[in-house]
Amino acid sequence: MRIIGGKYRGRRLATVPEGLRPSGDRLRESLFSIVSDAVRDSVWVEPFAGSGAVGIEALSRGARQIILNDRSSESLQLIRKNLKTCQVQRGYPLHHRDAFVFLRKFDGPEVDFIFLDPPYRFGRHEKLLKTVQRLPGLKDTTWIILEIDRKMKLEFVSEHLVIFRTLRVGNSQLVFLSPDGHSESFR
Fold it and tell me: What is the reported pTM?
């Protein structure tokens, strides 16, 4: 796994512990091709940060801040190692909480992107999206990006979150949502 673009391009990242599924290079390349220049000076939130690869990629491409959370101590150690590999010293608050607790207690700045990459057998997507839609830092233009298994159908979407794009990459699917459909500013 490596950083695809930006100032940390080509840096190799340590991978996640056995049994976890990181967001691969191809998926991240597709994701950042879609968000394009909107990443510059943005704030990213990752409640299931894993290796931190998506957030670090965002920093590499000009994000102002990434706010990373993972309930696994191993993942947080891995994130610290990957940040050190890229010589990142600021712009990345780390949290060690369950994703739902992290989102309910979020007291950070307004958020431009929320990247949700729960385990594929997570099964609580409805609750997750309901929790995200109540996030205090959510703006009308915030993009919520959910990574799910390619074969999964998202059964629930809140009346306040609108799917405006889906993309299949390998065994994964990215579902792009926004509050009340206000995603035009990034398209």
Answer: 0.91
